[in-house]
Design goal:
Layout (H helix, E strand, L loop, with lengths): L4 H30 L9 H9 L5 H14 L1 H11 L5 H25 L5 H19 L2 H6 L5 H21 L8 H31 L4 H30 L1
Helix pairs in contact: 1-10, 3-9, 4-6, 4-9, 5-8, 5-9, 6-8, 6-10
């Protein structure tokens, strides 16, 4: 019995079309963002506000934290990778909490004690975190290494890097010591609020997508593209670091 080549090629195109359209859109957005800002950039208006205020400004910093998280495309990509194959809300809560703890600790401690890493270098590492998680989702570590690295430990470690990236950027704007701790806590609350909003959207989209019969085949394509996006993010930051030295 001969296979109908047109049928199978058409089916393959149909299976790949949705994730490719989505990921192509993400690529274009990333390229557009890369021409004007780094992944952890603070807008000019927000930077001016941060530098001029004194004392606790709880609501303002909650807003700034939420805004950063929602517009932080590196965070969103990593978060997508983390929950990509988590089907139970208990597992989602565990992994997102681990990421939040790592992110919160280094952001608050880094700003409070005034230590950070060059923004280009830390953002390059964050780009690699997207690559790492997408490769993990593809099951390549078991194939290459013969075992599965601890996914919870990896999520915590990369959460620490993500928080360090934010701390490094905030330090550039020299926040006033007056009300600093309260403002940092408020900013972190905002980051977690933004993370929950982003997670809410991601889980709704993933819920509909997983119900499709071709999800697993499309998921492989999507994670391959996520690897490419992570490489793109890393390349942008390395190029920026070279240009700045």
């Amino acid at each position: 019995m001969k296979l109908n080549r047109s049928f199978w090629s058409g089916k393959l195109v149909h299976d790949m079309r949705s994730p490719l359209i989505l990921c192509t859109t993400l690529v274009l957005v990333l390229i557009a963002l890369a021409t004007s800002a780094s992944a952890h950039a603070v807008t000019v208006g927000d930077a001016g506000y941060i530098q001029e205020i004194f004392g606790p400004h709880i609501i303002s910093f909650i807003y700034l934290g939420a805004k950063h998280m929602i517009t932080g495309y590196d965070h969103i990509l990593f978060l997508l990778g983390v929950v990509f194959f988590l089907y139970h809300m208990k597992d989602v809560a565990i992994y997102v909490s681990i990421f939040a703890v790592g992110h919160s600790v280094t952001m608050i401690v880094g700003v409070w004690f005034g230590w950070g890493i060059n923004a280009y270098i830390i953002d390059a590492i964050i780009g690699l975190s997207v690559v790492y998680k997408a490769l993990d989702n593809l099951g390549l570590y078991q194939k290459w290494l013969g075992f599965q690295p601890n996914t919870k430990a990896a999520t915590l470690i990369f959460g620490l890097f993500h928080g360090t990236g934010l701390a490094s950027k905030i330090l550039e704007y020299q926040l006033s010591d007056d009300g600093l701790f309260a403002n940092l806590l408020a900013f972190n609350v905002g980051v977690e609020v933004g993370q929950l909003l982003a997670l809410f959207v991601i889980l709704i989209v993933m819920g509909y997508w997983r119900a499709r019969p071709n999800f697993m085949r499309q998921a492989s394509v999507a994670n391959i593209v996520m690897v490419l996006l992570g490489v793109l993010l890393t390349y942008q930051q390395i190029a920026g670091y070279i240009a700045s030295t």
